[in-house]
Amino acid sequence: MKTVEVRIRPLKLKDLDEVLLIEECSFRPPWSKATFLTELQKENRYYVVAEKEGKIIGYAGLYYLLREGHITTMAVAPEWRGKGIGKILLSHLINESKRRGLKELFLEVRESNWVAREMYQKFGFKMLARRKRYYVQPIEDAIIMSLKLRSNS
Ligand SMILES: CC(C)(COP(=O)(O)OP(=O)(O)OC[C@H]1O[C@@H](n2cnc3c(N)ncnc32)[C@H](O)[C@@H]1OP(=O)(O)O)[C@@H](O)C(=O)NCCC(=O)NCCS
């Protein structure tokens, strides 16, 4: 498969309306603009967008503290899914986490979200635990996954 060329760059406040369009067709319940604004203003956050010809087609975020990181969100616009954008975003977050000296990454994913779980597994994430009834709309368990990081250098 030919990889789509995208630019990964930090998420800016002016991107939020475009990001919300993707958010609203990706998650139930979606994050609101206020939630994104609060996130972006907090310390120890790193949010990026995938941009193609000036249009935002995906985004992802990371929260980190000491040597641990937590992937807070990741989504690709429905019409761009299955073209390698998720892998580009995830490998960017992993490389950035290593660059920042993080030792382990964590995330939660809906149990039924096999597309995302497969992607995380391909990058070496392992199932760590289950968080019962963590999600709503519909109620569902979260699978907690983690990845130990080794530095690039
Ligand atoms: C999960 C998501 C971010 C993946 O992004 P994407 O750009 O579609 O993913 P990619 O094209 O890079 O594919 C990555 C891997 O996902 C899996 N995958 C992608 N599309 C798939 C499909 N239709 N069926 C099964 N597996 C699929 C494959 O393992 C794939 O790796 P491969 O290309 O080596 O086979 C995207 O589907 C999405 O936005 N989903 C809604 C939001 C969401 O669930 N976010 C994750 C929350 S934890």
Keywords:
7 strands, alpha+beta, globular, seven-stranded mixed beta sheet, binds coenzyme A, Aminopeptidase, 153 residues
Description:
This protein has a single domain, classed as Aminopeptidase (3-Layer(aba) Sandwich). Helix content is 27%, strand content 38%. It has four helices and seven strands. Strands 1-2-3-4-5-7-6 form a seven-stranded mixed sheet, with helices on both faces. The longest helix has 15 residues. The model has no long low-confidence stretch (mean pLDDT 95). It binds coenzyme A (COA). The site of coenzyme A has 18 residues, from β4, α3 and α4. Coenzyme A binds next to β4, α3 and α4.
Q: What's the structural blueprint in terms of helices and strands?
A:
Elements: E1 7-10, H1 16-24, H2 33-41, E2 45-52, E3 55-65, E4 68-76, H3 85-99, E5 104-110, H4 114-122, E6 126-135, E7 140-148
Parallel strand pairs: 4-5
Antiparallel strand pairs: 1-2, 2-3, 3-4, 5-7, 6-7
This protein binds coenzyme A.
Residues 26, 74-76, 81-87, 109, 113, 115-116, 118-119, 122 line the site of coenzyme A.
